[in-house]
Amino acid sequence: MQVFSMMIGVLLLVGLIIYFAVPQTQFDKNGEPIESISGCPESTGILTVSIVNALQQGTAVTGATITAVDANGVQTNVTSGTTTFTIGKKFDLLVSVSDYLDTKIADQVMTCGGLEVKAPIYYATSDNPSIRVKNDDGDYVTNAVAGGAKNQTDLSAGETFTFDVEFQGTNLESSGNLVYIIELPAGSSANVTDVLMPGATNLGSIPSVHTTINAGSKVVAFDVPAVVGAEKKTYSVSIVLGADKDLNGGVYTDYYAKQWFVDDDGSLVNGIQDSTGDAQYENTGDFDFLIETA
What we know:
Layout: H1 2-21, E1 26-27, E2 33-34, E3 44-53, E4 56-60, E5 65-69, E6 75-78, E7 84-86, E8 90-96, E9 103-109, E10 115-121, E11 130-134, E12 160-168, E13 178-183, E14 192-196, E15 201-202, E16 219-224, E17 232-241, E18 249-257, E19 259-262, E20 268-271, E21 284-291
């Protein structure tokens, strides 16, 4: 009996040693498991963020503003290598750098010993991508609503005409996903029944950051995927005229580059404007041309 009691005592002792030696799962106020601080000498950890050029990941990026945003929209300005968070704290990171697309690094959790995050971010200078437009005769048109050496020739009443728009990217840069807006000549809202751009998504509404120019014009907006590096993407845009309707005058086309930003309610959003219509796009560009009269 004495030997049995001693064995039980030894087993209990071993169990206690294992329990306290192995980190135990803890839970936050929402009942979600978090990193245990058992065996960790600190209750907080340091956040270190290494920001690199996404297309040249051996190249460090300096001058960044780093913001941590938690599920409640609470924001913390971060100094890499200095700012601390409670072990188990969950947050997203917004990395903002001039001439780069502001980027979200999602679902970070502070761990015992600190957290190191690598943040690739895309270089994106203004006027990237460049745009060219080719008319239905196959000619590149002049970038001017007043016309130039090459324009879109006069249309026939009721026709559907197509022009090509080329987005030319820049080496080691990204345009970011774009909102591309086409504004047709004055009075076109009554003459044009549809504008089609296969490969892009019609947004159905016009962002308020875009200012229309032509009175009574038909204006459409499309989501266009990013142009990454020096690639070229070409889209065919078809303008469908109503029966016996004609169209001439200046056509304005503009793009706005999407990026991540902190919205007015504290949430992280990807787009070109916040919920109250303030501009948030990284860069913008345009190309305008003339549809001739007879």
